[in-house]
Amino acid sequence: MITIVDYQMGNLRSVQKAIERVGGEAKISSDPVEISAADKLVLPGVGAFGDAMAEIRRRDLAQPIIDFVATGRPFLGICLGLQLLFETGLEHGEHEGLGILKGDVVRFEPPVLNSDSGQPAADSGQPAGPILKVPHMGWNTVTKRSSGPILDDIQDGSHFYFVHSYYVRPTDPDVVALTCDYGHEFCAMVRKGNLLATQFHPEKSQADGLKLLAGFNGLSTDAEVSA
């Protein structure tokens, strides 16, 4: 059974339906006891970092999530559920995250070109518009930076669906499993032992996303995913 954490800031039913589509069983829960006892845990999320952490703390879910990851059972974070794993989120101020991974979460600052000359605005001295819009929204491809369970089924150039204005900057480059490019390279997925988390939405990413969820569903609950 896969437990999906409910803190009122995620597309919970979409994640549940996608897991069921690949043959898994999933329930949605905001009960700290159920979360602590889960076989596998999914932390989804859509919204602002600070609001999400406030809601998680209000519901007494922070420590059960942290403790769950430490047990070695499979864990999957999705979108905001990836970002919350880090120490600090810099969205509308500075907010403390779960601190499971070292690093921070920062806003995209896409490069700009002069709309007439095509030259960088800083060089032309003329008004400019952004090349890329924020949020990063839609389909994009990923590049593999690691291997192992689940990742071995994902090919370079696989397409996933993104919706986000902020991205994670892990302190440890070894946890970066997939990267993506949106004006510059950023971390699209992390992996550390039993912990996996994606910036994209696998539940919205059709065949490649379902393949990832099927791999997560198939992970053993008896041992850590090898590092």
TrEMBL record:
Amino-acid biosynthesis found in the keyword field: yes
Keyword Amino-acid biosynthesis: yes
Locations listed in the record: Cytoplasm
Transmembrane segments: none
Catalyzed reactions per annotation: L-glutamine + H2O = L-glutamate + NH4(+); 5-[(5-phospho-1-deoxy-D-ribulos-1-ylimino)methylamino]-1-(5-phospho-beta-D-ribosyl)imidazole-4-carboxamide + L-glutamine = D-erythro-1-(imidazol-4-yl)glycerol 3-phosphate + 5-amino-1-(5-phospho-beta-D-ribosyl)imidazole-4-carboxamide + L-glutamate + H(+)
PROSITE patterns: GATASE_TYPE_1
Domain of life: Bacteria
Record-level GO cellular component terms: cytoplasm
Annotated metabolic or biological route of this protein: Amino-acid biosynthesis; L-histidine biosynthesis; L-histidine from 5-phospho-alpha-D-ribose 1-diphosphate: step 5/9
Domain Glutamine amidotransferase residues, every copy: 5-207
Entry EC no(s): 4.3.2.10, 3.5.1.2
Active site, UniProt feature: C79, H201, E203
GO BP annotations listed: L-histidine biosynthetic process
GO molecular function: glutaminase activity; imidazoleglycerol-phosphate synthase activity; lyase activity
InterPro entries: Class_I_gatase-like, GATASE, Imidazole-glycPsynth_HisH
Pfam families (alphabetical): GATase
Keywords, in A-Z order: Amino-acid biosynthesis, Cytoplasm, Glutamine amidotransferase, Glycosyltransferase, Histidine biosynthesis, Hydrolase, Lyase, Transferase
Subunit structure: Heterodimer of HisH and HisF.
NCBIfam families associated with the record: IMP_synth_hisH
Role: IGPS catalyzes the conversion of PRFAR and glutamine to IGP, AICAR and glutamate. The HisH subunit catalyzes the hydrolysis of glutamine to glutamate and ammonia as part of the synthesis of IGP and AICAR. The resulting ammonia molecule is channeled to the active site of HisF.
Name of this protein: Imidazole glycerol phosphate synthase subunit HisH
